[in-house]
Specification:
The chain has about 325 residues and is mainly alpha-helical. Helix content is about 70%, strand content about 5%. The chain has helices spanning about 15-40, 40-65, 70-75, 90-105, 110-135, 165-185, 195-210, 225-250, 250-320; strands at about 5-10, 10-15, 150, 160-165, 220, 225. The N and C termini lie far apart (about 150 Å).
Length: about 325
C-alpha cells in the first residue's frame, strides 16, 4: 500500500498520520455527543482528550523504545527521532493515567469520563489500524489464503509477499468493540462498567491477534510477545475493576430505592410513635380528670363535714 498519499507543495500527506487525525476527530465528536447526553462537561472532555492524546503518543513511543532497547543503547540519538513505531498499549496505559490525574486535579468523577472516553478510544484505534495498513506496519504472517494482501511499496512489510491483513482485522474488531460498548452503555448506567468491559474485550482481542502478527520487532517475554504479556495484565485489571464496580457499589436506582425505603420507614415509625403518644396523652388526661374529680368530691365531703360541725356548734350555743 501507499503511505504517501499526495503532496501539497513541500508538504506530504501520509496515510498513517491522516488516519490518526481522522480517528481523533471522529472519536472526539462521538465522545462529545455522548457526554452531552449524559449531562457531562464537553469543554472539560475536550481538554481531557487533548491531554490524553499528547501523553498517550509519548507513552506509545516510550513503550516501543523499551521493546527495542538494544538499538536505543547502541544509538541513543534515536530517542529524539519522531520516526519509527509505536506500541498502542503504551498509549492506552499512559493515557488512562493522564486522564485519572487530570480528573483528580479538576475534581471530576473519573469513572464517568472513563466510560465516555474508552468507546471513543476504540474508534480512534480502528482508524489508526487503517493507517497501519496504508503504511504496511503491524503486518501479519505469510499466508496462501485468498484473503491475504500483498504490499509493493511498503517500508515496513515485506513486499510482493501475501500476508494476513492483521491491520484490517484489528480495525474491524475495534469498530465492532466501540459499537458494542456504546450499545451496552445505553442500558448500563453504573459508572466504570463500560471502561472495564473495554479493558477485558480489547485485551482478549489483542492477545489473539498477536498470534497472526508477522512483524518480529515487537519484543517478547518468554514465549509471549510484549503485547500478549501486557494483555494478560490488562484483562486481569479489567476483571478486578468490574468485580469491584458490580459487587461493591450499588446502582443509582438502588440507592434511590434504599433512601426511599428508609424515609418511608422513618415516616411510619414517626406516625406510629405519634399515635402511641396521643393515646398515652388521652389516657393520661382521662386519669387526671378522674383524679381531679375524686379530689373535688373529697373537698365537697370535707366542706359538708365543716358545715355540719358549724350547725352543731350554733345549736349548742343557742341552748346555752
Amino acid at each position: 500500500m501507499y503511505n504517501d498519499l499526495f503532496s501539497i507543495g513541500p508538504f506530504t500527506i501520509h496515510g498513517y498520520g491522516l488516519m490518526i487525525g481522522i480517528g481523533f476527530i471522529v472519536a472526539l465528536l462521538v465522545g462529545e455527543y455522548r457526554a452531552k447526553k449524559r449531562g457531562l462537561n464537553r469543554d472539560f472532555l475536550f481538554n481531557l482528550a487533548v491531554l490524553c492524546l499528547i501523553f498517550g503518543v509519548l507513552g506509545a513511543k516510550l513503550l516501543y523504545m523499551l521493546t527495542v532497547i538494544d538499538k536505543i543503547i547502541a544509538n541513543p540519538s534515536d530517542i529524539l527521532s519522531l520516526s519509527g513505531g509505536f506500541v498502542v498499549y503504551g498509549g492506552i496505559i499512559v493515557g488512562i493515567l493522564t486522564g485519572f490525574i487530570y480528573c483528580r486535579i479538576k475534581h471530576k468523577v473519573f469513572r464517568n469520563y472513563f466510560d465516555i472516553v474508552m468507546p471513543s478510544v476504540a474508534i480512534a484505534q480502528g482508524f489508526g489500524r487503517i493507517g497501519c495498513f496504508l503504511a504496511g506496519c503491524c503486518y501479519g504472517k505469510e499466508t496462501d489464503s485468498a484473503c491475504g494482501v500483498v504490499f509493493t511499496h511498503s517500508d515496513f512489510a515485506p513486499n510482493n509477499v501475501r500476508l494476513i491483513p492483521t491491520q484490517l482485522i484489528s480495525s474491524a474488531a475495534c469498530f465492532l468493540l466501540a459499537l458494542v460498548l456504546i450499545l451496552i452503555a445505553r442500558k448500563q448506567r453504573k459508572p466504570g462498567v463500560i471502561a472495564g468491559l473495554y479493558l477485558v474485550f480489547y485485551g482478549i482481542g489483542r492477545f489473539l491477534i498477536e498470534f497472526l502478527r508477522g512483524d518480529l520487532e515487537r519484543g517478547s517475554i518468554g514465549d509471549l510477545s510484549t503485547s500478549q504479556f501486557i494483555s494478560i495484565i490488562i484483562v486481569a485489571i479489567g476483571l478486578i475493576w468490574l468485580v469491584c464496580i458490580l459487587v461493591f457499589t450499588k446502582k443509582p436506582e438502588s440507592i434511590a430505592e434504599t433512601v426511599e425505603n428508609i424515609t418511608e420507614g422513618a415516616a411510619m415509625t414517626f406516625e406510629s410513635t405519634a399515635k402511641d403518644a396521643v393515646k398515652a396523652s388521652e389516657s393520661t388526661a382521662e386519669d387526671a380528670a378522674k383524679a381531679f374529680e375524686n379530689v373535688a368530691e373529697a373537698f365537697e365531703s370535707t366542706a359538708g363535714a365543716f358545715e355540719n360541725a358549724a350547725d352543731t356548734a350554733v345549736k349548742s350555743e343557742d341552748k346555752l
